[in-house]
Amino acid sequence: MLIGFNLPNSGPLSAAADMTRLATEGEAMGFDYLTLTDHVVLPDTKVPGYPYSESGEFYEEAPLERHEQLAAIAYIAAKTTRIRLVAAVLVVPHRPAVLAAKTLATLDVLSGGRLVVGVGAGWLKAEFDAVVTTPFEARGTVTDEYIDAFRVLWTERSPRFAGRHVRFDGIVLEPKPVQKPHPPIWVGGEAGPALRRAARVGDAWYPIGSNNKHLLDTSPRLAAGIGRLRKAVTEAGRDPAAVGVSYRVKRYGSAVPPKATDGERRLFSGSDADVAGDFRALRDLGVTAIDIDFGGRPDVAATLAEMRRFRAAVIDKI
Questions:
Q1: Domain of residue 195, residue span
Q2: Quick check: 20 and 79 in contact, CB under 8 A?
Q3: I need a surface site. Which of 11, 34, 153, 278 has the fewest CB within 10 A?
Q4: What's the domain count of the chain?
């Protein structure tokens, strides 16, 4: 099982020196991957609407201070040598398909094949209205079509595509990504369309457990979600073993209420021993990667101290 951490590209820890230190020292600690999130612009985040917290508010302090995701990945790629770089997740409709495919291919080449393309359709209408040219209501079909276009551009010598939202012919996209046939695609989202997208084109399903509308925050709920994924993969005509499960943990330990609404213990709540047990339990369920958000601490030194403590107290006990 791969273990990663979220690299803040927003808020007080997103200064270039702090991001660099967190990335390089996290790499030295032996984490397998780091993640960076994607927002181009945001509305007033004090207004509830964030789907992954109990209050509906963003977890981070000063989340409006935010670097563009792909530029930040390029910057961190140049500061690191081994650690994998996960877009967590790329909001696919934010960028024209051909431009996004080219940028992602470039990132994979320049990083030496370390890119993982997490993808999602997005959820924030105010951001779509400011950034995206396709309709918010069509974001799912746009996402599916753009991903199909990415795969054509990344793998075919003479790429050709004729869709509703993107069309091209007679073009060349070189160099191709280092990873073959293309960088891994981790499909974010917890609802049915995301599961079907993961089943059709994903190398992994990449949910967050705390989505209030589609909770995957207990072992029974996550096991049921993985069961739905396996069924969808089979229906898509693929081997269920071909699609992994990567799981994002936004909060852990005492920051997590101990009991979920289904009456079960919430995953990653409780003591270090409890959290280590959850890693083992999720591995047994078939989860192939887990990343932890160490945010919410006052400075980079405190964050690194917690990362070291967590490795010794939890990860080394798995």
A1: 2-317
A2: yes
A3: 11
A4: 1
Q: What is the CATH number of the domain that holds 98?
A: 3.20.20.30
* Average pLDDT of the residues in 131-158: 97
pLDDT at 56: 67
Peptide bond into 193 cis (omega under 30): no
Percent of the chain with pLDDT over 70: 93
Q: pLDDT confidence of 47, banded at 50, 70, 90? A: low
What is the token pair recorded at 285?
Answer: 């369920």
HEC per residue, the chain:
CEEEEECCCEHHHCCHHHHHHHHHHHHHHCCCEEEECCCCCCCCCCCCCCCCCCCCCCCCCCCCCECCHHHHHHHHHHHCCCCEEEEEEEEHHHCCHHHHHHHHHHHHHHCCCCEEEEEECCCCHHHHHHHCCCCHHHHHHHHHHHHHHHHHHHHCCCCCEECCCCEECCCCCCCCCCCCCCCCEEEECCCHHHHHHHHHHCCEEECECCCCCCCCCCHHHHHHHHHHHHHHHHHCCCCHHHCEEEEEECCCECCCCCECCCCCECCCECCHHHHHHHHHHHHHHCCCEEEECCCCCCCHHHHHHHHHHHHHHCHHHC
pLDDT digits (tens, 9 = 90+) for 284-315: 999 999 999 998 898 999 999 999 999 999 99
Contacts of 167 (CB under 8 A, 6+ apart): 161
**Pair type for strands 115-120 and 2-6:** unpaired
